[in-house]
Amino acid sequence: MNILFHTLGCKLNFAETSDLGRQLLERGHKKAGKTDEPDLIVLNTCSVTDAADHKGRQAINHLHHLYPKAKIIVTGCYAQLKPQEISKIEGVDYVLGTEEKFQIPNIIKDIEADVNQAQIQTSDVRRLRRFHPSYSKGDRTRCFLKIQDGCDYFCTYCTIPLARGRSRSGSIKEIVEQADKILKEGIKEIVLTGVNIGDFGRDTGEKFIDLLRELDSIESQENYRYRISSCEPNLLNDEIIEFVSKSRHFAPHFHIPLQSGSNEILQIMHRRYNRELFKERVDFIKSVMPDAFIGVDVMVGVRGETDELFEDAFNFIKTLNVSQLHVFTYSERANTKMLSLPLYVVPKKIRKERSERMHELSNKKHADFTASQKGKKGIVLWEGKNTDGMMSGFTGNYLRVSAPYNSQKINTFELAQI
Questions:
Q1: CA distance 300 to 389
Q2: What residues contact residue 164 under an 8 Å CB cut-off, 6+ apart?
Q3: If you write DSSP's letter for every residue of 270-323 in order, what string do you get?
Q4: pTM
Q5: Which of 175-179, 221-225, 321-325 has the lowest mean pLDDT?
Q6: Rounded Cα distance, 378 and 401, in Å
Q7: In what order do the strands lie in the sheet with 253-259?
Q8: pLDDT for res 115
Q9: pLDDT tens per residue, range 204-240
Q10: Distance between CA atoms of 12 and 134, rounded to whole angstroms?
Q11: Three-class SS of residue 88?
Q12: Which residue, among 306, 303, 286, has the nearest Cα to 294 in the 3D structure?
């Protein structure tokens, strides 16, 4: 079968789709090219916001319009949370939940047959305990390696535990073996990804810091690096930060979810830290790695966020020495605790205005960080894309640098002017 893969959402989704793709190719199926007519479409969805659900529906309609004869499997978080809704969309043949997506290589023979209505296969994610290792290779230089899945936090606004289940991890031995294999294939950068990666090892009795140490000691090749994806501030402790600052292969790049700069809103959200702890983490990173890039997740417009609390949060975030904000606008999610709390509901127009202000602040912070690095040198990993005779790559502290295209430099490190 010619199979078209389409992925929405996070790096974790991309890692899982890529791994499924490799399994299907090993069984004799083919990845549909741009000019091919696919027999089967696998759509891996996100459901972090209403907008994510909307993109999922748009993708289904678009793909069915383009390839009306193709069978369509919809999986991912949206499929786990709203299978009945998806099953009613024209063109959908199978809706597979969080655990069932990993059975696609086994059930694909059934999909070849005609079905009168969409078949739904989902299970109770609360019972999931198995960890499915996955990694994706987006290009010749970078790989997303899944080290953890699920979350035990149950924040009041969030559906991730409902979509992906409880926290579970691979073993250190398993993850290191995968990383070693990836590096032997010539990949130079590995991004460690998961839902709550700082929680790594909770179910196996191992520790995240010990995983980092083992990964840093791999000798498959001399020049390679890791990036740590989003890590909760209460789990990103001084030991981890100090290790990264002295490590051989970990980039000075952190992504830390804050969500709100208001302690009152953090309590409403059931976050496990306050803003004082968050600032301590940022300040400590900058004390040992002054040039480190720090990205921050921020959510605006949640229930209970009055004008006064938003201004308090905004003014606090202005004081943080961070490099960029990843801004989310709150949207009501079914079966989350926040919907049952008797709180002020922020009008959607005001949510949009607050998002725009946060984006403006993000642009300023990124411009200030970029200016602070001007004239310095950084280790750039060159990528293969040729854009009007130019190539580009990222420094360890996540600044994009450009240079005249040179095919000999692709997937190599170079000390370059920022």
A1: 40
A2: 77, 80, 98, 125, 128, 149, 150, 151, 195
A3: T-SS-HHHHHHHHHHHHHH-TT-EEEEEEEES-TT--HHHHHHHHHHHHHS--S
A4: 0.93
A5: 221-225
A6: 9
A7: 253-259, 293-300, 324-329
A8: 61
A9: 999 999 999 999 999 988 899 999 999 999 999 999 9
A10: 8
A11: coil
A12: 286
